Structures are given as structure tokens and as C-alpha cells.
Amino acid sequence: MSDNYLSGPIPKCLTQMSASLGVLNLRQNNLSGIISDTFPKNCSLQTLDINQNQVEGEVPQSLGNCKRLEVVDIGNNQISGSFPCHLKNISKLRVLVLRSNKFNGSIHCHKNNTGWPTLQIVDLASNNFSGKLHQTCLETWKGMQVVENEAPSKVKHLQFQFLQFNPNHYQDEITVTIKGLEWELVKILTVFTTIDISCNNFEGPIPEVIGTFKELYGLNFSHNAFTGPMPSFLGNLRQLESLDLSSNYLSGGIPLQLVNLNFLSFLNVSKNKLVGQIPTGTQLQTFSNASFENNPGLCGPPLTVKCANVFRPTTHTEPELQSVDGLDWPFIFIGVGFGVGAAAFAVPLLLWKTASKWVDDNVDKILEIILPKVGLTYRRPSDLKVEADENPEEDKTETDDDDEEDEDEESKETTEEFRGRYCVFCSKLDNKTMKKVIHDLCCTCYDSTYLSPSTSTSSSFSP
């Protein structure tokens, strides 16, 4: 009943009859009202498609009874409420389309929910979802991490039988946004995987678990409030053909790991806070300016902004400082660092004599080993100094000996001069004439004995 002009509410009988229905396709009509919460416990629906209608209300809780559901497409309606966590118990779900509705809040579900091990297409675009993307929420999307062990010749489409005994098959048709354009997939390959959460209010960093979704063909996180660096683990998504991270608050440089995305044919990182040079020598230069514009710190081809005065950031998780007034600050910092390091090593050597002597000795040893091998001789400066000092020592010794002999002779002569008679209490030595002076003629005189040099210098004699 798709692609008609049906109007009014969805009849309750259709939901009540889902025990015997495999497909309920009401897409592209003018249906309104709410989805009746009357899905039976033995619901057999495999596809529910009410895309492009005017349906309101919330996703009914009884829809969780349809354990065989593989496709839920309720996009482009007026459906509100929180994320339908009660559908997490449907382990066979492959396609979940909630785009262009009025959903709000976080998409994080309770840990008791089993998750979606076969989920391959998620479209939550153009809603009011908010909060951070939690690791535990996305880790259950196993279908995006590993492809089923099927040979390329056995790749299948999603298809269901109309009736149990009918040989005809139904093939789903959904609309997805890939490479910036809307595509209608009439045949959904079981290996086709994509995530579109654009135009919401998600915030915080892009979770690392995204780097494990190695089978993704399309990833659209645009028009949100994601912060932090553009993650390098995006380079793990080797099958990625479309990547849109535009209109966020991502910072830092474009990681070099993106060169690993050989199949990437659409890229948009515009309107962020990226800085530095776009990696060169890769297919990233084949994209247009529009893919990188409105990033004030980004430079290099294909942009017309040159990187002469813009510091090139590395692939670190934080943005780097840019140069100011044309100065290359990184090289300045490196030079200062080397200077400080050299000073820290040299100053102690200059002040520490033991260390200086140790360095000199080791240098001498090295030169004594190396120079003879090239035909040269080396003598330590200390050896030359010793030889130069040997002769002055000998000269000094001889001179000292001569001086001592002269002093002995002078002392002897002086002593001989004062040998003779002297008078007790009556004579004294005149310091000027160095002669005896008699003051009392009646004094008693005696023959003088030999005087040592020390006593001969006395100014007077005592008895």
C-alpha cells in the first residue's frame, strides 16, 4: 500500500493482524494519528515501513513483541519521545531509520538490553537527540564490526516471502544519505553498513569504538556539537567511502591515518576548528575546497591558504600553537632547549675541578690511542710542564746552597769580631758601630766564649 494517497489514522486491525503479516509497508502516504499499541506477542512482522507520512505519538511498547523484525523505517514523520530502547531485544534487526522526527534525549540504553548484533544501517538524523555517545551503547552493534563469513559470490539482499507458500519475494526499499546525497536503496546488501546521526545535539568526543566498525561504508556525524581532536582511529575504517564530520567543534590537525582510506570518495570536514597543514601526497588533495573550508587554522592544497605563517600540527590529540609575527616558534623552543641542556652539562664541569680533571684525563687517553695510529705522537700537557720545571728546581737548589754558605761566613766573621774581653755589668754592644763600649773602667773583665749567630744579634749582654 505504499506510494498512494491514503489518509487518516493507521487502522488497528493492521497491527493486530501482524501475527500473520510479514511486511507492513505504508510509506509515502498521508497517514496521520498514532501507531496503535496492539502488536500481539506472536507478532511475525519482518518489515515495518511507514516512512514519509504524518504519524505522531511515540513508538509503541508492543512493537518489541515482533522478534523477527529486520527493518524498522518510521522516518520523516512527527513521532516524538525518547530513543526506542525496547527494540534492543530484537536481535535480528538490521535496519533502523528514525530520521526527521521529534525524538529527543540520549540514545544510551540500559545494560540489560541485549543489543543489535546484526544491525547494519542506523539513521537517526534530524532529531533532537543529545548527550554523549557511550561506548557501551555502540559496542553492541556487532554487525558493523565484522561482516558475516560469506564469500563475495554469496552476498545476499534483504528479502522476504509474501506468504508462506508463495514463491515470490519482497525486497525492502529505504532512503539513505550517502556522499551528501539521498539514495533510494531498492536492494539492501547484507554487507552495506552506514551510520547517520547528523543534525542532532550530540556532544563530547567521538568514541573510540567507532574505530572498530571496520565494515562501515558511510559515516555522517555532521551538524552536531562534537569536540576534541579529529580521531586518528578513523584510519581503521578501510571500507569507508563517505565521511562527513562538518559543522562541529573538532580541533587539532587532520590525522595522517586518513591516507589509509583508499576507497574514500566523499569527505567533508568543513566548519570546524581544525588547524595545520592538510596531509600532502594523498588523495585528500583531490577533494574540493568545500571539503575543508571554514577552518581558520587549516592550510595547504586544495585550499588557497599557504602554510608559510601557520604552524603545522602533528597528529596529537590536542591542537598546537600557531606562529606569531612569522616566527618559527617550534625551532626557537628547540634551540632554547638545547642551550639549557648544554648549560646544565657544562656549568658543573667548569665549577667542579674533579670532573674537569676527569674529562682531561679521558681526553688524553683517547688521543694517546688514536694519534699513534695515524703516525703522530701525543704528549700530555702535564708531562711537558714537569720537564720545564725540573731545571728551575736544580738552579734554585744550587743558589740556595751558595746563599747559605755566604750567610755562614758572614755570621762567622761577625762572631769573630766580638770575640775577646768584655766586662760584666760595664759593657754593651753599640748597634750602629757593632763595637763594644766600656762604661765603667773598674769593672771585672773576662775572656769571651764563642757566640752563636742567634746570641750575636742581641742588643745587650746579661751576666
From TrEMBL:
> What segments bear the compositional bias annotation Acidic residues?
389-411
Q: What is this protein called?
A: Uncharacterized protein
Q: How does the record say this protein sits in the membrane?
A: Single-pass type I membrane protein
Q: Which family does it belong to?
A: Belongs to the RLP family.
Transmembrane segment boundaries: 329-352
Q: Which key words tag this protein in UniProt?
A: Cell membrane, Glycoprotein, Leucine-rich repeat, Membrane, Receptor, Repeat, Transmembrane, Transmembrane helix
The segment annotated Disordered runs over 383-414
Organism (species): Gossypium laxum
Compartment(s) where it occurs, according to its Swiss-Prot or TrEMBL record:
Cell membrane
Name the Gene3D superfamilies for this protein.
Ribonuclease Inhibitor
What InterPro entries does this protein's entry cite?
Answer: Leu-rich_rpt (IPR001611), LRR_dom_sf (IPR032675)
**Would you indicate the residue range of the signal peptide?**
none
Q: List the record's Gene Ontology CC terms alphabetically.
A: plasma membrane
Note one Pfam family from the annotation.
LRR_8
Keyword Cell membrane included in the entry's annotation? yes
